[in-house]
Amino acid sequence: MKVVTDLEELRAARKQLAEQVGLVPTMGYLHAGHLSLVAAARRDCASVVATIFVNPTQFSPEEDLTSYPRDLSRDLALLEEEGVDVVWTPTPEIMYPPGYQTWVTVEEISLPLEGARRPGHFRGVTTVVAKLFNAVQPQYAYFGQKDAQQAAVIRRMALDLNFPLEVIVCPTVREADGLAMSSRNTYLNPQERQAATVLFRALRAAQTACNKGERHAKKLRLIMRQTIETEPLAKLQYVSCAGVLTLQEIEGEITGEVLLSMAVFFGKTRLIDNIVIN
Ligand code: AMP
Fold this sequence. Notes:
Oligomer: single chain
Structural class: alpha/beta
Shape: globular
Order of helices and strands: EHEHEHEHHHEHEHHHEEE
Bound molecules: adenosine monophosphate
């Protein structure tokens, strides 16, 4: 496994790789969710490139950029075990050289849900992912359903900008008790960690109601909200029942595929989760 930092080194390593190349972008502090993306890339592609970069432009000033967990040597050991060919660990100076002023923005689908609560977040994400696509030139790029809106925004960007690659979205990997794996779970104290199982319980409660015939989006949102409210340590930021393609909130009855999603605070830690129901 080659570990490279400079763009020139990355380009030289890329030239040596057998086609097709699969890219797995991450911010590091890897868990089984990240590794499932690597495993999918390993299955589909002759070569796998993983990137580790805590992208400053997708954090707003009050968010957790400086405290974001990092453990490069552990991450590299895990990626080596998974059979990754090249790991690119660029610095902020490489990604954003002095005088930097070029941004990629995807419009409508960046606006609701996470976009409404984290202004500028998706501009940072799409800009850095476009730069990763340009540098690595993969034929396949792997993202997690855990960040459903991010995957949708990146898929839109890849289509709109004619990136010659396929975006593959992999299922959310969960802990045994249902909590979606996240590098941010490490911020939770033991009481909060226990309480955090309420996100998946809320999603499942809405899914169960839907399976029993509940079709009103408003009622499904209410069920999720009420489940979250049973947990005293949980502070709900939003619940949503939206069209899976448009991400627009549904007001009447649901039809077809629907994205149930939410963001919940436990102290300062903000967790998101979602499921797609049919
Ligand atoms: P991050 O390091 O949090 O930026 O995540 C890197 C990639 O891993 C993104 O495409 C995420 O959607 C994906 N990912 C994060 N957590 C999970 C999970 N629990 N299951 C599947 N994919 C995940």
